[in-house]
Amino acid sequence: MSMFVKLSAARGIPVIEIVAARAIISVVLSYLMVRRIKTPLFGHNKKLLIARGLVGTMALSMVYYSITQLPLAVATVIQFLNPVFAALLGLWLLKEYIRASLIWCIALSLIGVSIMTLAPSLGSSVLNAQALESAQFPPVAVAMGLGGAFLSGLAYIVVRKLSLTEEPAVIVFYFPLVALPIALPFVIIDFVMPDALTLVYLGLVGCFTQVGQIYITKAMKLENAGKVAAYGYTQIVFATLLGVFFLTEIPTVHTLIGTGLIIVGAFINMKSKS
């Protein structure tokens, strides 16, 4: 999904338009899925479902704002604090126990992400270590990035709570149902007409989003929020591979070391579960 977001943005599509396109496709697919399983379209706990949509939309908006104002490496590191928030919120709100293996997983993953993103990485667009040390980052942008990470962690907790009473397809349906009316006014103000290839990219953004959301939501039904969120770090591994094969982004030693730490953390988590 992230790869096609990047390809769409490279062809001049504003971020909010990508969000809207994603929501349009997701709301249609979600509607069809809910109808297919013959469950109530709007679920049972409507207030919490709407809250999930609002929290997700706010998190996405804050994360994208931080990305536009901060170096991508820094914004990425801040956003990957969301599993930490999810684990802590799970402990506080859902009384979920944090195992030692999960702490090791989070620690190794954070170190791995930091090595990958704060060190010289893919191409000249990434700041070098010396530049990062001397950079002065806008406090508002940093605060928005932290807020986005916190709200992403909160969204995991809300989904975990909803999974006790709601079908995954219904939970997924509410995100675009809330995000779309919020995004559309901004799209109308700054609309860019996509060409045929860009339409394909936008369509794939929505399709891959839908598949990912369904499986993440199902995972929430089977495991506690902190552990599921910790596995989100593996998206960096997939992103690295996609970058190599489709975007000609060759990983550096720092990328490989960081990826290795993430895999080790996930392995410790997995062995503890088994």
Helix and strand topology:
Layout: H1 2-10, H2 15-36, H3 46-69, H4 72-79, H5 82-93, H6 100-118, H7 129-134, H8 139-162, H9 168-189, H10 196-222, H11 225-230, H12 235-246, H13 253-273
Helix pairs in contact: 1-10, 2-9, 2-10, 3-4, 3-8, 3-9, 4-6, 5-8, 6-13, 9-10
What does this structure look like?
Helix content is 77%, strand content 0%. With 274 residues, the chain is an all-alpha fold. It has helices at residues 2-10, 15-36, 46-69, 72-79, 82-93, 100-118, 129-134, 139-162, 168-189, 196-222, 225-230, 235-246, 253-273. α2 (15-36) packs across α10, α5 packs across α8 and α6 (100-118) packs antiparallel against α13. 44% of the residues are buried. The longest helix is centred in the C-terminal third of the chain and has 27 residues, at 196-222. The two termini are 30 Å apart. The chain has one domain (2-273). Residues 120-135 have low confidence and may be disordered. The protein contains 13 helices and no strands.
Low-pLDDT regions: 120-135
Shape descriptor: globular
Helix content: over 70%
The topology string of helices and strands comes to HHHHHHHHHHHHH
Tally of contiguous helical segments: 13
Task: Quickly list its features.
single chain; 274 residues; mainly alpha; globular
Summarize it.
The chain is mainly α and 274 residues long. It has helices at 2-10, 15-36, 46-69, 72-79, 82-93, 100-118, 129-134, 139-162, 168-189, 196-222, 225-230, 235-246, 253-273. It is globular.
